[in-house]
Specification:
It is built from 17 helices and 16 strands. It is of the alpha/beta class. Bound molecules: pyridoxal-5'-phosphate (PLP).
Length: 465
């Protein structure tokens, strides 16, 4: 039924109320959750208003919520479930392992097995270490770079996300008024918890600007330990780096002995050897996470043996890396069972599904007369409520600001139509998905836009083309 609304607040209330009536059990649990968790949630990225769905189970490409709705899962725990939910081989491997013990403070053969799989696929990772998360992986890669260079600063990209700690979140969101000039951004702490002295250790580089990046590296080389970059800017909207940009980072860091860290926590799924094999850019260090754990918590970092030597326990002052769940046998078992199934054929198939999704979404916006577009590459997709080109985080943020509350409301309308995705409108494909699932998501967008357009005429005409 087309939505009518006089103000954006009306529209928000109407859609929220409908969503809560549609998911009453989730609504009740969310109210209960507010007693235990600030705002009713234990994880910022998975939260959305008026409250997230409570998910009861997942199987293949689908999740089932506590009200019994079945939704196609395009979120896949923020891209970590490349085989979808409860893959038979993963369930078997983890069940066998848990019966033999879930964690030991010792070396295990499963660590060797997963390490060998990773090394054979990503040759730049001559040696590696496992961690309990992607955040820990990027942090340890930065420490590795510092210990090797004796320098302290890192350069990161505006809009780049590398985990849940200060350095990794600096300038994630280039807030207007705080972010400084586009060609020489200021460092913007994401929240009030950031220590200003830590921000002194960060240089922020505009994404996809090879000349600016080269100039920044050259100017700060004497104090710069590492440059860290995602080959596809993930959290800020699945924006691929240009080859020219990554190559400029590679050339300039090599020229000045600065360590180049490719953060492939998300992008390993883009090629058998990760995005580095697709771009043909070889980093000094790589961080991994998500898919290598087969759905269980994990991270890994590694690179040239001479750099990784700082972790050698027989070094006079080795870099301290101790992590209770690093290399835990459950994550190793799930990771091995998963990575055995992730081959070139699967990656191509997931990429073709991703391409079909992006083309369908773009068509849906065009047919509805709504300014919107998809970005992404391979199995990774994001929607933006703008028809302007999107090459960096400022472009993505401009789109979000222009759309105001509409992006979040569109996400709820898609949930009600059986499409589960990140509330920032991020989608990724998984092995159990079919073309029918992708077409279902496209129809859901068509339907949601048809419902939304009459209200947009009243409250957000700037979104209509
Ligand atoms: C590119 C990138 N690096 C690092 C991380 C941090 O990984 P984790 O959430 O496992 O700590 C993330 C998480 O989304 C990520 O997208």
């Amino acid at each position: 039924m087309p939505l009518q609304a006089e103000t954006i607040d009306d529209l928000r209330s109407r859609i929220h109320e409908h969503y809560q009536r549609w998911a009453p059990r989730s609504a009740a649990l969310a109210a209960e959750a507010r007693r235990s968790f600030p705002g009713g949630d234990t994880r910022m990225s998975a939260h959305y208003a008026p409250h997230p769905l409570f998910i009861d189970s997942g199987e293949g490409a689908r999740v089932r919520d506590v009200d019994g709705h079945e939704l196609v899962d395009f979120m896949n725990n923020f891209t970590s479930l490349i085989l979808g939910h409860a893959d038979r081989e993963v369930v078997r491997a983890v069940s066998e392992q848990v019966a033999r013990g879930s964690a030991v403070g010792a070396a295990t053969t499963s660590q060797l097995e997963l390490a060998e799989i990773i090394r054979s696929r990503v040759p730049s990772m001559e040696q590696l270490r496992f961690t309990a998360s992607g955040s820990e992986a990027t942090l340890m890669a930065i420490r590795c770079a510092r210990a090797n260079t004796g320098r302290r600063k890192i350069m990161k990209m505006e809009g780049g996300y590398h985990g849940s700690y200060e350095l990794a979140e600096a300038s994630l969101v280039p807030l207007p008024g705080l972010a400084g000039p586009a060609d020489a951004p200021d460092v913007v702490p994401i929240d009030a918890s950031h220590s200003p002295s830590l921000m002194d250790d960060v240089l922020v580089c505009p994404f996809n600007e090879p000349d600016a990046a080269a100039a920044l590296i050259a100017r700060h080389a004497s104090e710069l330990a590492a440059v860290i970059v995602e080959p596809v800017l993930g959290s800020m909207g699945m924006i691929p780096a240009s080859r020219e940009f990554l190559q400029a980072l590679r050339d300039e860091t090599a020229e000045h002995d600065v360590v180049l860290i490719l953060d492939e926590v998300i992008t390993l799924r883009l090629g058998v050897g990760g995005a580095q094999s697709v771009y043909g850019v070889t980093p000094d260090l790589t961080s991994l996470g998500k898919i290598i754990g087969g759905g269980l918590p994990i991270g890994a970092f590694g690179g040239r043996e001479e750099l990784m030597r700082v972790f050698h326990p027989e070094e006079p002052r080795p870099v301290m890396h101790s992590s209770t769940f690093s290399g835990n046998p459950l994550s190793m078992a799930a990771g091995v069972a998963t990575m055995h199934q992730v081959d070139a054929e699967l990656i191509d198939r997931l990429g073709a599904l991703g391409q079909r999704l992006r083309a369908g979404f773009d068509r849906a916006f065009e047919q509805a007369g709504v300014r919107g577009r998809s970005t992404g590459v391979g199995s990774l997709t994001n929607l933006h409520l703008t028809d302007a080109p999107i090459a960096d985080a400022r472009d993505a943020l401009q789109g979000m600001i222009g759309a105001g509350a509409i992006g979040g409301l569109l996400h709820l309308l898609m949930l009600e139509r059986g499409v589960f995705a990140a509330s920032r409108l991020m989608y990724c494909t998984s092995s159990p998905m079919t073309e029918g699932d992708v077409d279902h998501a496209v129809s859901a967008l068509e339907d949601a836009l048809a419902e939304l357009v009459p209200a947009l005429e009243q409250v957000a005409p700037q979104l209509l083309s």
